[in-house]
Amino acid sequence: MLPFGGKLLTDNRWVKAAKIMPWDVIEDIYEKSFSVSEGRPSISSRIAYGAIYIKEQENLTDERTVEYIAENPYMQYFLGLPEFKAEPLFDSSMMVHFRKRFNAEAINTINEALYKNTHPKKDDDNTPPPDSGSSNTTDENKPGNHGKLILDATVAPSDIRYPTDLSLLNECRENTEDMIDALWEFTDKKGHKTAYSRKKARKNYLKVAKQRKARLQITRKAIGEQLEYIKKNIDTINKMLAETGAGKLSERRLERFRVIEKIYRQQRLMYDTHTQKCDDRIINLRQPHVRCIMRGKAGKRYEFGQKLHFAVVDGFTFIEDQKWDNFNEGVCLITSAERFKERFGVYPEAILADTIYRNTDNRKFCKENGIRLSGPKLGRPKISEAEADKELAYNDNCERNMVESRNGISKRRYGLDLIMAYLPQTAETEAALQVFAMNVAHCLRSLLRHFLQFLFDLRKCRITAYFV
Fold it and tell me: Chain centroid to CA 103: how far?
């Protein structure tokens, strides 16, 4: 019998989602995140994880999530409450701590458990995974390859403004000026705080920044001026810290000052060498972990955020890799195939991917393990096989659209197109949670589809038995 006086509808999506959630795995992960020392009682794992899941499922802010939970009895049932509570369960600031308890690796573990809960294995070990298609059995005693693995990569952009060197240096200059103001009262210095006019520095920046398209020489001159201002401020701050001690600045400001020093070294190197590239280049002062990832797509040549490598099996999405630095997803094919074998016990029958995956090592690996890699074969095609290969390539492209739809749904519906989290760990958690929420919705649709198919088959059997 349902809580809340049995007045909840059993076919509600939150009631259904509560039944398929791997709460035992979530509890184990949540317990490991706490220290052994005693303290005030913690909020239960079901409330903590359920709250951040609701946020991503409904695409809400932290404050709105707390309000929605207080207003909706179905959400409270999903969180494991025995009865309705009108007051908020926790403060919205706790959502940040919940996301820290569940990092991206933990979310991926929960995602794997969700797949096992909704796709239980049958007794026969040779049974192929769902929608596996035809088998490729080579030996009667050994199971052949089963299933299809679809691979692709995408970028989850972070909430930053479009980066330019001039705006980044101006922000660094303004931050160093604030640090000088904060340290000034602890020294016996008098007179001007900076070795230049702040109004003139701001005016010189705006004179170039307000131009629709400033010439290269003008922009370079403005960057050189900002570099000189920052160098003078860095020297001043280092002298003041040596005099007053590092404790006069907050930990956050000290950390930001170290980032500014690194930005200055990078920008000075690029300015002196007349280049636009450097290793581990910082493009945002508030989020120095964000990197520029070249995409080369229409309207989005560059994106700024974390890169995710997806593997889709029967519509269920797994995050194979998640990094802030750019990487070539083509070298991840072998790792993804090995993980497929860990999940199902066999290699996939076919791997559907775009051209970046069709390198020599991947082709060799697929040939040795009996895996068909999508795309044209090497060499000149035979005339007798040309038509069949063309039809197979067309079918592969149609099936590969599944991963493109997963990318689109996660971005347009669940917010993967703009990650609002500030810290790198919580941003990774938010991206992983959005993929998890998409998988939960897919599982609920699959269960409904299987149930309707069961009713159809049952009705068909009854009609056949009647006429027989």
Answer: 11
Q: What string of DSSP letters covers 88-140?
A: -SS-TTHHHHHHHHS-HHHHHHHHHHHHHHHSPPPS-TTPPPTT--S-B--BT
Q: How many CA atoms lie within 13 A of 353 on its CB side?
A: 30
Convert the pLDDT of each residue in 302-359 to its tens digit. 899 999 999 999 899 999 999 999 999 999 999 999 999 999 889 999 999 998 999 9
Q: What gap in Å lies between CA 222 and CA 228, rounded to an integer?
A: 10
- What is the DSSP-derived secondary structure letter of residue 419? B
SS (H, E, C) 442-456: HHHHHHHHHHHHHHH
* Alpha-carbon gap, residue 51 to 46, rounded angstroms: 8
Measured CA to CA in angstroms, residue 14 lies from 9, 291, 304, 319 at distances of 10, 37, 34, 24
pLDDT at residue 217 is higher than 80: yes
Going through 128-178 in order, the beta strands assigned E by DSSP cover: 148-157
Give the Cα-Cα-Cα angle 364, 368, 370 (nearest 5 degrees).
115
Note whether 326 and 148 are within 8 A (CB): no
Cβ pair 291, 283 in contact under 8 A: yes
User: CA 290 to CA 294: how far, in whole Å?
Assistant: 13
Contact (CB, 8 A) for 70 and 9:
no
Query: 427-440 b/e with 16+ CB inside 10 Å = b?
Result: bbbbbbbbbbbbbb
Residue 78: other Cβ atoms inside 10 A = 25
pTM: 0.85
